[in-house]
Amino acid sequence: MIKALQRWWKYLGAKLGGELESRADPKVQLEQAITESQDQHRRLKEQAANVIANQKQTEMRLNRAMEELEKINRNARQAVMMADEAAKKGDEAKVLELTTAAEAFANRLVGIEQEVEDLKQLHLQSTQAADQAKSAVATNSSLLQKRLGEKRELLNQLDQAEMQEQMNTAMASLTESVGDDVPSLDQVREKIEARYAKAQGSAELEANSVEGRMLEVEQAAMNTEAQARLSQIRSQLGLESPTAEADAPALEDTVADTPATGTAETA
Length: 267
Known about the structure:
By secondary structure, this protein is mainly α. It has helices spanning 2-23, 26-89, 92-175, 185-208, 210-236, 242-257, 261-266.
């Protein structure tokens, strides 16, 4: 029973996750991924800063220890020299005091030398860790910049995909019916072409009918009357008709070509 409930719970989780993934906005998901990468880079920089800070502190401790070592070494040398001068003067009490001080400085010198060696090893390790941290930050920074570039490319592709989807939807609406009460563009085109063809057929029928011929004769008569009236107006104005000027050369050629019948009969 428990195993069945567990399987059912996993199935519900997978189903809800699949529905969420299918309905999620890619732009939001992309922004979430970039934000997570930026947060990881910030945490990496904080860790690297702590590693570098530890290296700096170790370096400061090593410098102080080396300064202390040099100081104690000088003091020990000074105590030995002073004890030797006291021995030359025969001051046994002074010799004992200075020898004790020199031994104390020597003991301290041994401890400081060990501390310096330990700090040198620690400083070497912390320096290596700091270099690795710096390299990790630089590498991750390059990856982050690359991801930001990929984000811009993906956003451009997403915008192009959305535009193409809108164009596909628009083109589909031109060839397919949107609904029962909304015709497609092809249906409207067929309807207009049918009306245009019918109108052309009616015009041809009217042109070939008796009424159409009568209208053509009336139009010709009106044109003839208009030309006659125009010739009358030119005559009143003393102007020659362009038609008469055009016909004059033709008339002269006709007269020239006609044989002289009277002369032939006289002969």
